């Protein structure tokens, strides 16, 4: 992504546009560029899009938890002086958004989740990454998408570098365990924040039944599907994703 990365105290983030604040939360292996389609589209529609770099590998090992990422997000919101934010998260980012919304419901006007963890134990991958095996990593990266070509060499190289960094691998596994501990099935029925669920029909990481369960448990949610789409709809079908989200925001007067 070519956007300028702002360094402001302990926060590093991209900021574009003015208007209703929309904070984008990336996943465990996902970079800020995964949301390029969203960050280019919504500033033209009256939204202030912010994409903070989450401290996935920066916290001490014992603090590498979903809850601490949710607290980090709250610190960022307070630092920027924001209120009534829209949170949009993919995979682990969706889980962080859900937990933050449970912890700080007064700060969040709306929540958007896509391929989110939080209910499904295998959301972090059913086979732990094998160090040094590039073809294995390449296949794992391709499996995230309906169209394997979306897993460019740049994406595969980035994942390969992460799993071959011992401390990053240890923290990746710590996050996976934390995500399993923070299963939100019992919390969701008490969460009344308007929630838009956008899911790939062919997601193999968090399968379609996970989206249906989120929809059933979240009392104020709407569920939308994207065909021929895997775990990252905003990457694989950015136009469809943007149009679904824009229509939902208009319907809800956000």
TrEMBL record:
The protein depicted here goes by the name Alpha/beta hydrolase
Q: Which UniProt keywords apply?
A: Hydrolase
Entry's Gene Ontology molecular function annotations: hydrolase activity
Q: Kindly give the Pfam families that the UniProt entry links to this protein.
A: Abhydrolase_1 (PF00561)
Q: Does the keyword Hydrolase apply?
A: yes
Fetch the InterPro entries from UniProt. Answer: AB_hydrolase_1, AB_hydrolase_fold, AB_hydrolase_sf
Q: Which organism is it from?
A: Flagellimonas abyssi
Q: Where is the AB hydrolase-1 domain?
A: 21-116, 184-238
């Amino acid at each position: 992504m070519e956007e300028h990365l702002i360094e402001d105290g302990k926060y590093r983030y991209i900021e574009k546009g003015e208007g209703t604040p929309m904070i984008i939360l990336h996943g465990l292996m996902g970079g800020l560029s995964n949301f390029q389609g969203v960050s280019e589209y919504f500033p033209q529609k009256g939204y202030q899009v912010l994409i903070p770099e989450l401290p996935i590998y920066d916290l001490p090992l014992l603090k590498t938890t979903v809850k601490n990422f949710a607290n980090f997000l709250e610190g960022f919101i307070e630092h920027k002086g924001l209120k009534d934010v829209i949170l949009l998260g993919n995979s682990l980012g969706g889980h962080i958004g859900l937990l933050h919304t449970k912890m700080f419901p007064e700060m969040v006007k709306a929540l958007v989740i896509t391929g989110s963890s939080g209910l499904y134990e295998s959301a972090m991958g059913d086979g732990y990454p094998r160090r040094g095996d590039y073809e294995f990593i390449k296949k794992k990266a391709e499996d995230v998408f309906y169209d394997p070509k979306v897993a460019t060499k740049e994406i595969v190289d980035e994942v390969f570098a992460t799993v071959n960094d011992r401390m990053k691998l240890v923290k990746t596994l710590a996050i996976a365990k934390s995500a399993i501990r923070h299963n939100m099935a019992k919390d969701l029925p008490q969460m009344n924040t308007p929630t838009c669920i956008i899911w790939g029909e062919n997601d193999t990481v968090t399968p379609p039944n996970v989206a249906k369960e989120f929809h059933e448990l979240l009392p104020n949610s709407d569920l939308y599907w994207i065909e021929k789409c895997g775990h990252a709809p905003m990457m694989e079908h950015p136009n469809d994703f943007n149009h679904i989200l824009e229509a939902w925001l208009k319907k809800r007067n956000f």
